[in-house]
Specification:
single chain; four-stranded antiparallel beta sheet; 7 strands; alpha/beta; 4 helices; about 25% strand
Amino acid sequence: SKIDAILLSYPDALHLGALPYIVGKLGLTCPIYATVPVYKMGQMFMYDLFQARHNIEEFDLFTLDEVDLAFEKITQLKYNQSVSLKGKGEGIIISPLPAGHMIGGTIWKIVKDEEEDILYAVDFNHRKE
């Protein structure tokens, strides 16, 4: 109830590895946003992570059904596509921008009441591509 939205930046386990756990085991219900490549590759990464761990040890942090449940909750966005948040996020607009660090990697532009601009950059490539 204290989390209003989740913005996914990269498809690897370091950036979204806890998502199936917090959706499946903790019951997270807030909106989740990601670019299309982060969604598609992230789901494959999480299936692979589950299978790799399950093959070598007892793995119960999350199930494949919880991976599916988590990814069903994701709203897929294209770069520069703006979305206005609802509820407690009223007045906030988010837009994914290319980070250049990994395919689908995202820097999030967050605008509040058209007055404040925030760039949320977890990892990025500052070199010209």
